[in-house]
User: Fold this.
Amino acid sequence: MANKKLVATCLRNLVECAESLGYTPVSGMLGGAYGYGFEYDSSEFMMKPYCWCEEDGCPWCDYDLDYQQAPNFHHKPSGFKVWWYKYIGRGMRIENPNNVDIVEVTVYCKFHLREVRDNDAGN
Assistant:
């Protein structure tokens, strides 16, 4: 089982890295700096902050569901997924079907973000 504190720390660190590369994290108060995530989706991973749209059928915030269907973070190659309530670390649920190391996953995601930025800069 993944250590929730370590997972939260790693995800916040990923958000901080993303900001340093030009992505805009969602801000808030209780979640602290980098605690709310940022909007990102690629073939490698996705991150979506807590959704407040409250629309029927929204996979991130439909209150008629027993729990969120769509994760807030998904490392697609490994299947590692994390759900949180409002901010990273709160009411977190983790799915780690391949028992991957969250530190390795976030390092991989940081390299991916840098690669995307460098490829975009070269165009």
About this structure: Helices lie at 4-20, 102-121. The mean pLDDT is 88.
